[in-house]
Amino acid sequence: MKTRILLTALLACTSLAAAEIRVGVIVSGTGPGASLGIPERNTVALLPQTIAGQKIVYTILDDASDTTAAVTSARKLIQDNKVDLIIGTTTTPASLAMIDVVAEAKVPMISLAASEAIIKPVDDKRKWVFKTPQTDAIMAAAIAQHMQQNKIKTVGYIGFNDAYGEGWLAELKKNAAARGIKVVAEERYGRSDTSVTGQVLKVLAAKPDAVLIGASGVPAVLPEKTLKDRGYTGKVYQTHGVANADFLRVGGKDVEGAILPAGPVLVADQLPDTNPNKKVGLNYVNLYEAKYGKDSVSTFGAHMWDAGLLMQKAIPTALKKAQPGTAEFRSALRDALEGSRNIIGAHGIFNLSATDHLGLDARSRVMVQVVDGKWKLLK
After folding, report:
1. What are 18-64's pLDDT values in tens digits?
2. Residue 165 in contact with residue 215, Cβ under 8 Å?
3. How far apart are CA 336 and CA 314, in angstroms?
């Protein structure tokens, strides 16, 4: 009898020791969103392999910047890999499409996409969804403020013909109106389009003081290049969706002078020492560039890094309530993520709540400009 009890105890201890937390990662490693997804994927190698004594197993899938593929990948991770958490995906349309999947399975998800619609309102489905990138609402407010300070009265808009572009247009209209700025032109284009001449001509016909391009990654270069080719000399604003080296490399002189809001990590070395995100940002930059090369870092990889920080804080709390691989653990992990407070990340300070599954404020943004092919912090 004593032998049987001892054997049972040993088996139980072995089971606990062998427990592992399975994290599914979905990024756009190929397709139009690849310049965002690749640094996100690269950053996974920098995330912890153990947390609170538990092994972390990462499974990375590429959705090829395709919404259907993202949904299929989410289902695969949940059904085949039995993941406890999903981090991803890169783009707004695909992240929105994944909400139903994770909500049905009751698996928490941390999106790496920008739109506020991914997490708001926090209803029965979105209660399972969190995100780390600044919302279009936070960043559009910064752009409108900069426009007002520079006495811009009219603005034209050209953006993606999907949820990302429409979200940005809505936020531009709201924030511009609040500051007495009129949106005089609205145009859309596809992420894979090779020409936007027609749209640009319509924007130019409205003679705006400035133009906002509501796009992300390398595809955001096309409208700015076309504007410059057509002789436009007003200010050109981009979104935080372009803050990576590929945008600078592909855009070259055509994106010189572009103004955008970005996470502080993009210019971490230019931040004052009093900025609370400087230390965390520089740590991420140094780790990333040590592995992937100088000037290889981007804000998008840092969104993955911040997701990792949230995960590191939430997992020990969830482990106090349940074991990995169970519905109880996934529910406890969701609750722990929602209770995250004062987590200093590369992009800002996260204070999540039952009504806010991002938890960032104005400290998560700075205004930058492309000057001599590099990012320059605007004071």
Report:
1. 579 999 999 999 999 999 999 999 999 999 999 999 999 999 999 99
2. yes
3. 5
Residues 338 and 358: their CA atoms lie apart, in Å, by 9
Write out the chain in H/E/C secondary structure: CHHHHHHHHHHHHHHHHHCEEEEEEEECCCCCCHHHHHHHHHHHCCCCCEECCEEEEEEEEECCCCHHHHHHHHHHHHHCCCCCEEEECCCHHHHHHHHHHHHHHCCCEEECCCCHHHCCCCCCCHHHEEECCCCHHHHHHHHHHHHHHCCCCEEEEEEECCHHHHHHHHHHHHHHHHCCCEEEEEEEECCCCCCCHHHHHHHHHCCCCEEEEECCCHHHHHHHHHHHHCCCCCEEEECHHHCCHHHHHHHHHHHCCCEEEECHHHHHHHCCCCCCCHHHHHHHHHHHHHHHCCCCCCHHHHHHHHHHHHHHHHHHHHHCCCCCCCHHHHHHHHHHHHCCCCEECCCCEECCCCCCCCCCCHHHCEEEEEECCEEEECC
With contact defined as beta carbons under 8 Å apart, do 26 and 63 qualify? yes
pTM, whole model, 2 decimals? Answer: 0.88
Phi then psi for residue 173, to 5 deg, are -60, -45
Q: Which residues contact 354 (CB under 8 A, 6 or more apart)?
A: 122, 338
Both tokens of 39, joined, read 């640094």
Tokens of 65: 């910047």
Nearest residue to 143 (alpha-carbon basis) of 348, 372, 367: 367
